[in-house]
Amino acid sequence: MASWRGAALVLAAALFWATQLVAQATGPDYAEWQSIAERAEGAVESAQASDEALTTLRGEVAGWRQQFQSLLNTNDSRLQTLRDQIDALGPAPEEGSTEPEEIASRRAELTEQLDRLSIPRRKAEEAFSRANGIIAEIDEILRQRQADALLNMGPSPANPTYWGGALRRATESVLAIGANIQQSWHNPAARARAQDNLPLVLVLLAVGLVLVSRSRRWSEALAVRIQRRDSGAGVEAAGFVVSLGQIILPMLGLFAIVRAIGVTEILGTRGTVLLDALEPVGLSLFFSLWLASRIFPRNDSLSTPLALPPERRVEGNIYTVVLGVIYAVSILLSTFADYDRYEIQSEAVLHFPLTIAAGLILMRMGWLLRRNRQHRIEGEPDFEGDYASRFVSLLGRLVIVIGLVAPVLAAFGFGAASRGLIYPTILTLALFGSVALLQRFIRDVYAMIRPGEGARESLVPTLAGFVVVLLCLPLLALIWGARVTDLTEVWARVRSGLTIGDMTISPGSFFTLVIVFVLGYLLTRAVQGAMKTSVLPKTKIDPGGQTAIVSGLGYVGIFLAALVAITAAGIDLSSLAIVAGALSVGIGFGLQTVVSNFVSGIILLIERPISEGDWIEVGGQMGYVRSISVRSTRIETFDRTDVIVPNADLISGTVTNYTRGNTVGRVIIPVGVAYGTDTRFVEKVLREIAEAHPMALANPPPMILFAGFGADSLDFEIRMILRDVNWMMVVKNEINHQIAARFAEEGIEIPFAQRDVWLRNPEALQPRSAGTDTDDEGQA
Length: 780
Known about the structure:
Layout: H1 2-26, H2 30-46, H3 51-70, H4 76-88, H5 101-151, H6 163-185, H7 188-196, H8 198-229, H9 233-243, H10 245-264, H11 268-295, H12 310-340, H13 344-379, H14 387-411, H15 415-449, H16 459-479, H17 484-496, E1 498-500, E2 503-505, H18 507-535, H19 543-568, H20 577-590, H21 592-607, E3 615-618, E4 621-628, E5 632-637, E6 642-646, H22 647-652, E7 655-657, E8 665-673, H23 679-692, E9 703-709, E10 714-722, H24 728-746, H25 770-779
Antiparallel strand pairs: 1-2, 3-4, 3-7, 4-5, 5-6, 8-10, 9-10
């Protein structure tokens, strides 16, 4: 029997795949599509169908659209080959002229094949366009209805005449559950089934109650114990993972309790509705408790992304839990309102207390979020505020406004709009808190893998955190009213690709472009590293030439990698001609200096008038060339400062290279002696000093020049060629010391400037006599 059943399953699978293959081979059934499209267009035109009916119809049309989209690229390669063949035959003859019969018949044959193979694609394009239009119209109707529901003014919950009816409906719902349970219990068959499943029920209840009541404390105690034991990225990450048990384990317990009660089958249909609502209610409660313990921990040993004092953290912890309770109660209320079809005024009245409580808590929570930045500034006087703190402060202001506006809207009868603000705001705060914790966890994991100072704030965890934010954007859209179909529509448009002119860039081609370019870039860097460390050092090329070769390989490799990546992605470069032309005009007007420096850098790397290590002087700056890039050259001065010189200045300006080709250079040392000194003897002494220095070349020998008659001295110059001009300052210093010592030994005077001062009225400097002073005093 089992063998026959297995054979039947294999046969059914084979028939299914055969049907799929036949469907793919024959293409879509356009007759059936015509019927569905006409029905959908009729529903759109009348706009009387319910939201559920329109959503179902949209799903059918979207399925057909996906089939048509898969046919849009049918026979692409074959069609392109036929077009190339037709182009190879040359242009078609003009009217009144003829061409050889063989070419004309071949052209007609190829044109006929091209038209025949284009038919499926054209039909798919027409059907795809029709499906797109129908889906857009359905989405517009659904969005308009959603907007009307939010802006529709209903009964005011502040009207006391509605309170009694609302309370009566809520009481009836609760009592109906008890009546339903009692009715099921009096059913002998239901009671017998419950007794048969009693052992399983007891086990599930025991396990569920233990997990719900105790697992959160176990997880929290374990997380605190881990973080108290030591500090570090690994401990923080482990504590976060363990803390997730505060959600997972209680939810498993609640799941066991729900299944245990469901097995008894004594609740009836109304009780089943309540059981179905318990799981999202429990998730809301347990998640809010976990989030409160991580964002606003009461234990000082636990880290938190907010800089709040302990008393504020306790306050935030309470507010987070209360918001979770409010959201859980709203789930229960909405469940029974939908099941029992509450009147609109009863639903508005029952939601109004929740809206007021949530608004007050949100205003207080917004104040706490704003206080976060103030506490950072007070705790760190130099703190100017980063993006995260500014975002939290702005979020706090928005939350305060929503907490104030939503109850007012509800009081005036805009209950749907009020609930459309309050509950998405609660979910948004929960989402942002979760994202902040997940980003911290990613930084901790990276710091654990790559320990070091600043690891948490490095590029990799920052990019990973940014990716997390991007992945949460669809959830944020769903929270604020976007439908799943809206997201699937966006994804369908992304899959179809971005069209720029005649060029379409799909996600597949984009990822191909990125992957191929990254591989080419890595290969280029590997070749550069091999050439720089293994090949070029074994050649006789100077360091500047080696740098030029390595840089040239890098630019050529990156260019080839980009070219290969674009070709592999199937992007037609000819369609970028207009963009390239416009870009060239922009470069010509706005980037003249950048382009000039770039071209000058290429010239420097090719001609190599200067090389790394050369001693040069340009624009009044003197120093050693340390690096030559495409845009600029870095010079290290003798003051150990870096000067960045644009390459255009090195090409168009005057550059003095003291060590180009070799390090031999001349040094000039001026010396002055007193008038009356034997000049020939001075020349002899200076020549002996110069020739005795080990850095001086013997050929040509040092030269002593009697430069002239100065105002205070007879001026001489020692001119000598050094083996290494880089030692010029050292040689000058040493020669001057030797001159001073030798002149002192030979009695040669080194003069200094002297001046005679003549006074026009020297008597003014004579002291006055005592009598004169006395007379003057007496007169005074």
